[in-house]
Specification:
337 residues, mainly beta, Immunoglobulin-like, 2 domains, 15-stranded mixed beta sheet, 3-stranded antiparallel beta sheet, 1 helix, 40% strand, globular
Length: 337
């Protein structure tokens, strides 16, 4: 049996590994044939601009089967076209350097799949909204990540956040002839809701902070750790879509649970308006920031050992001699480290 130890005062507590968090698109259980599911954004800059396609092929699946043979094109209001290439696992990407999207430009996508043509509504890239900074607070035994922002002078903001959590582990010297490696492990922690903010009622120039992630204090906080945040500014329509996804998910269970009613997005079949298509293609403005933590940040209240222990008090947990054995582990350092 495998143990990690969290010391609070002089008491060792067993920690639980956090479970994965997915923003799952809803679908209707009464469907009798596969339904296309679209998840993609276009944002100001050179990208990478990506889109993910899947289907509701079998009802009740936790994840949807991937679409790997579609033809996907991005089109702007001037008629210029940019092709997406399939790069694996249902993900499509515009070739790097071929598109440098600008604020204010209007785009839509066209998808050709199994003899049908699907399009999104036109989307305009909004003005960017920068993250002022990131901070954290401790509530009971939970780490709370907060984003600080200032409302712009040119109108309301609608925000959504994506958070990636990575911690690093350095191997023990288990073999004197092999140098220890450092691994980076993505921790897909559970979140009860999608972090969203409707800033339409905030006065311009208002400085505020918003809770965007919560994680129980566990053994990962004994290691160098990062919280990488992508903040998306979006249209009121896109915000309303994600709010409905969040509302349905919270009413009926968790984001893991397939939902009994579909939430329609902005994708339609140009030849059959009654055809159900799920998901959303949004034009957004993105900003990113990263917050790093170390065991010393929590020392006053939580005395946390690194996963593989400290000199003189080593814990030979799984992966401490070969950290690549750990789930979601990589030797590749994230670009923001």
């Amino acid at each position: 049996m495998e143990f990690q130890f969290l010391i609070r005062g002089s008491i060792f507590l067993t920690c639980l590994t956090m479970i994965a968090c997915l923003e799952q698109i809803d679908f209707a259980p009464g469907e009798v044939r596969p339904v296309l599911v679209v998840d993609g954004v276009i944002f100001a800059g050179i990208g990478p601009h990506t889109i993910q396609l899947s289907t509701t092929d079998r009802l009740g699946l936790k994840t949807f089967p991937q679409v790997t043979d579609a033809t996907v094109t991005l089109i702007n209001d001037r008629g210029l076209e940019f092709s997406y290439n399939h790069v694996g696992e249902g993900n499509y990407r515009i070739q790097a350097g071929s598109l440098n999207a600008k604020t204010g430009e209007v785009y839509f996508i066209e998808i050709q799949y199994e003899g049908q043509i699907y399009r999104s509504m036109e989307q305009q890239i909004p003005e960017p909204q920068s993250i002022d900074n990131l901070s954290f607070d401790i509530e009971e035994d939970n780490f709370i990540l907060e984003a600080h922002n200032t409302t712009p002078d040119n109108g309301a903001i609608y925000l959504k956040w994506n958070v990636e959590n990575v911690y690093s582990i350095t191997e023990l010297i288990c073999n004197p002839f092999i140098s220890p490696l450092r691994c980076y492990i993505k921790d897909e922690f559970h979140m009860p809701s999608i972090p969203l903010l409707d800033g339409s009622r905030l006065q311009k120039g208002t400085t505020f902070k918003h809770k965007i992630a919560s994680k129980r204090i566990d053994f990962t906080f004994g290691n160098p750790q990062s919280f990488y945040v992508i903040q998306q500014s979006m249209s009121p329509e896109a915000f309303e879509y994600w709010s409905r996804i969040d509302l349905v998910s919270n009413q009926l269970g968790t984001l893991f649970d397939p939902q009994p009613s579909s939430v329609r997005g902005n994708i339609y079949n140009i030849n059959d308006p009654t055809d159900i298509v799920l998901g959303y293609f949004a034009a957004v403005a993105q900003d990113d920031a990263v917050l790093f933590t170390a065991a010393g940040d929590f020392f006053d209240e939580f005395q946390i050992l690194p996963y593989c222990g400290i000199p003189g008090f080593e814990i030979f947990a799984r992966g401490c001699c070969r950290c690549t054995d750990l789930e979601n582990s990589s030797l590749n350092r994230p670009p923001y480290w």
